[in-house]
Specification:
six-stranded mixed beta sheet, Purple Acid Phosphatase, chain A, domain 2, about 20% strand, about 290 residues, globular, alpha/beta, single chain, 7 helices
Length: about 290
């Protein structure tokens, strides 16, 4: 509702003037609010379905909105649009492990959850479709895309090659094709966040990935796999590795804020109840227009 002081000037604008006023003020307010996303990876729920190690992370995510960011960044944490998981939900994809995770993100986590499959979720040398089918049913495909807050999110599943006997892998040709085709659909200038299971350090065909992205306005590439929070740059692209909530992990999840033409990536330590402001883990950068 407009205040009494504004009614007369707005009335004098007429219908056309009012339309212009709203067009220029409402988007500014939306840009000020921005978009917030929480990220984690490598949850490694036990084959027995024991997922109690995830509870501190989930409860911390639920409680974080309203918390002040470090003073140099300003503002408080908004309610996240969703929580994104970069794979390895399970230690091995039993029904008990999948069901335990599914129940937690549906009932305990207060925000929508999106996930992609990691190598553990495929079953390794004893393949299983349990987690893969669950993800495909939730998101209509193992690789999928969606829009949120003016940002296009691309989740690319890359099949893991167990025969290599190495955690370092190439992004599959199928995943690269999906990325190329999905980016062609995006309206020019739309910021894109790309998510995969493999982090930059684990990708053996980095240049091929960069070429697949091409001129797409990818402002961030999310990955997991190596369990710790890192921020790296490669050929102009921002690569962020999401941390693991595993019992022997760092006890962190990552907050991503896209607002006012800036990208902020900042891990939160839920065991120490404080922000992690270490070099190589934090990204605060302007989003260059395309």
């Amino acid at each position: 509702m407009f205040t009494a002081r504004l009614r007369k000037p707005l009335a004098a604008l007429g219908a056309v003037g009012l339309a212009f006023f709203l067009a220029f003020t409402l988007p500014a307010a939306a840009e000020e609010t921005g978009l917030t996303v929480f990220g984690w990876s490598d949850q490694h729920v036990a084959t027995s379905g024991d997922a109690k190690h995830l509870l501190p992370a989930i409860d911390a995510m639920n409680a974080l909105p309203g918390t002040k960011y470090p003073e140099r960044f300003g503002g408080v944490v908004d309610k996240p649009a969703f929580v994104f998981g970069c794979g390895d939900i399970t230690e091995w994809p039993t029904a008990a492990a999948k069901n335990a995770y599914a129940e937690l993100v549906a009932k305990r986590l207060k925000f929508p959850a999106y996930d992609i499959a990691g190598n553990h979720d495929e079953g390794g040398n004893v393949p299983s479709r349990t987690v893969l089918d669950w993800i495909a049913a939730r998101h209509k495909s193992l690789s999928y895309a969606f829009d949120s807050g003016g940002v296009h999110f691309v989740a690319a599943f890359s099949k893991y090659d167990e025969s290599l006997n190495s955690p370092a892998q190439a992004i599959s040709q199928e995943a690269l094709k999906f990325i190329r085709e999905e980016l062609k659909k995006v309206k020019p200038g739309t910021p894109v966040v790309l998510a995969m299971h493999l982090c930059l350090d684990a990708i053996t065909n980095r240049d091929e990935l960069v070429e697949a992205i091409g001129k797409g306005h990818v402002i961030l590439v999310l990955g997991g796999h190596y369990h710790k929070a890192t921020v790296q740059k490669y050929r102009g692209l921002n690569f962020v590795q999401l941390p693991s909530p595993a019992a022997n992990g760092p006890g962190q999840f990552t907050v991503v804020r896209i607002a006012r033409g800036r990208l902020l990536v900042l891990p939160y330590d839920y065991r120490k109840h404080q922000w992690t402001d270490e070099p190589g883990k934090v990204l605060d950068a302007a989003i260059a227009p395309r």
